[in-house]
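User: Hello! My lab partner asked me to get a predicted holo structure for this protein. The small molecule is thiamine diphosphate, SMILES included with the sequence. Please write out the structure tokens.
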Amino acid sequence: MKYIPGKLLSKVNSPKDLRQLKETDLKQVCKELRQYIIDIVSVNGGHFGASLGVVELTTALHYVFNTPYDQLVWDVGHQAYGHKIITGRLDAFPTNRKYKGISGFPKRTESEYDTFGVGHSSTSISAALGMAVASKYKNEQDKQHIAVIGDGAMTAGLAFEGLNHAGVENSNLLVILNDNCMSIDPNVGALKEYLTDITTSRAYNRVKDEVWSLLGKISKFGPNAQAVVQKVENAIKSALLKQSNYFESLNFRYFGPIDGHDVNHLVKILSDLKDIPGPKLLHCVTIKGKGYPNAEREQTKWHAPGLFDKDSGEILKIIKEGQPPKYQDVFGKSIIELAEKNDKIMGITPAMPSGSSLKYMMEKMPKRAFDVGIAEQHAVTFSAGLATQGLIPFCNIYSTFLQRAYDQVIHDVAIQNLNVVFCLDRGGLVGADGATHHGAFDLSYLRCIPNIIIASPLNEIELRNLMYTAQQKNMGPFVIRYPRGNGTTVNWRQPFKSISVGKGQKIKDGDEIAILSIGPIGNEAIKTTLELESSGINIAHYDMRFIKPLDEELLHKICKTHKKLVTLEDGCLHGGMGSAVLEFMSDNGYSLQVKRLGIPDKFIEHGSQKELYKECGYDSNAIRETIISLVNSKISI
Ligand SMILES: Cc1ncc(C[n+]2csc(CCOP(=O)(O)OP(=O)(O)O)c2C)c(N)n1
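Assistant: Hello! Below are the structure tokens for the protein in complex with thiamine diphosphate.
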């Protein structure tokens, strides 16, 4: 079905068109923009509540600032659908997140309005500051730089690092804090409480508006007058907020809180702020999911609800009877079972209680499970601290976000050989979130670290057994990596069994060719080898289970009895399991013919997982073709 945007919105092919409209038209533009997002996301999927929450902000920003000359930087970028629509991608928006369509996040190669590529959080302040300092250096004094960052993203260390630097740079930077009290789940931490204090301080908010209008008048009389007013204003803020303002103590001028849904007021405030030099922060209070009642009410569910009926508000989840569970749920339920038996087990997530399913443990054992905010580095070092005291932290992090905490894994965990269990969710290609979110690199970047055990289960039962194994005795750092989505086993809740560390398993005997797989992608190999067997091609299949330590005994056996090998992994080829096998062969003087299947050396964009496996050459078709061509090839060694 084709969705027709509203009358005003359909005329907006760029922010220039928007700026031609009267200020009084902006409310209607917002209404149409919101409706268009609802129309398309309901049939396409994608992030929802966050974009609805910034419709007014997006419109006001492009109306007031001279984008793309002025640089507008979105944090995370999951809220930038309105921005995409206004900046020339109205017609392309129905292809959002689809294979070969536009990306669900801002992307520099997609539009000159996308000033900085995103997907991971908390980069906006540093990036916008870099742009601001560059403009100062190039003498582009009139250029504005705006970072829009959520209260969730503000909890990360990186955001603080950006503020800390910006406070001494005196460059032209406006940080807009989009405060909706939500991350994906409710936001957490002391900063969140501080922001709530400001927002709810009646006395402060009453005086603030008067000071603001005074400032507006006096700023026209030059810098001295402005400095006097600023001092008065600071004193009022300090007195009324009972403490010095956090942002002002970092040399930012703090403005707000203001209603982030009043587009005309936003236009006025942003226009005023344009004339105030130096680093400033505007605190906007918004409602995640604004304008779609269900999304306002159940904000976590509607962060990225999948497809839904926009009229009834029903989320169209196709749950088939007897469907195998999601890996994340197997983790979330199994950790409770284990923790009930072992009081040393703790659960940690950096801002993904729902996404990781640690929320079940947080509900049941609130003293033993922590959401630490969008703070992967802290999550890892906090886990390391727990481990020094003899506890066994299960630190659950999406594979792609662990990239943030690489040094913490090495310096804080591995060197000290601490017993931290890393449950890496979303390992491998994740689909529509695209290049920023694929868990492509973990096996490679972890494999080179001494002391670490790295495993990936073939199915849900193996995931449980690996979790059980990891908490048994002092194992040191133990990584269990599993993918997004559902597994393959309906009766997954089997009694726990210990798995021998560094031992693979034979799935199937066969001659001449062996396929070695790691992780659930091995199920594709199981299907393919069975199919080929019925056509008379007999292939051995081994599930390596551990990429570190490698099962060398098994590899010796395989290399002695086969001439050709296929390795299969849902991870990047460079440095992955196939590379580990080649290293083993080289170290031990084996010279089999090897074909490696996995993610090639490029960034893979968005699409369905199926489409992307095909593109990368390891869907079941590609596995079959690889095997057949290897069977038919002459050995040229
Ligand atoms: C480094 C990193 N960790 C986790 C995430 C997953 N994530 C995406 S959006 C989001 C919540 C962001 O909250 P906030 O900045 O307040 O924006 P809102 O969705 O509330 O508008 C999280 C945790 C991420 N994108 N990047």
